[in-house]
UniProtKB/TrEMBL annotation:
Pfam families: Aldedh (PF00171). It comes from Paralvinella palmiformis. This is Aldehyde dehydrogenase domain-containing protein. GO terms for molecular function: oxidoreductase activity, acting on the aldehyde or oxo group of donors, NAD or NADP as acceptor. It comes from the Eukaryota. Gene3D superfamilies: Aldehyde Dehydrogenase, Chain A, domain 1 (3.40.605.10), Aldehyde Dehydrogenase, Chain A, domain 2 (3.40.309.10). Residues 1-147 form the Aldehyde dehydrogenase domain.
Amino acid sequence: IDEDQFNKILALIESGKKEGAKLCTGGERLGDQGYFIKPTVFADVKDHMRIAKEEIFGPVMQILKFSDLDEVIHRANETEYGLGAGIMTQNLDKANYLSQGIRAGSVWINCYDNFDAAAPFGGYKMSGNGREKGEYALEAYTEVKSIITKVMQKNS
């Protein structure tokens, strides 16, 4: 993390407080050297808040209430981004239902940010197009070429 990202994260944390999210823990610099931020958790987050709409790329968790799984899918797909989603549950049927409906390049169930070199990686929407890793990435390094040669026959 560099100073620019550090300041961006702190600005987003401040916006969460100003927009009415409940700061449960963290929300400030950790120590007096470097660019460390205490793990931060916000509750009572609403969809219109910056901390719900923007990719923070920092130690900030937002808790949003929901009524049913279709609402979760709808709200997740209304965002501009679609890099990844994490689902924590004991009910794998619900997790699979969510993972099929959410438009995200990677969906982790009962884990987060785990990767395998053979699994394609990439996002949807503003989180990027294309895939890295796995067989899908090989296409980016492949140049297709056609060569057609007419071979003259001796007795023609």
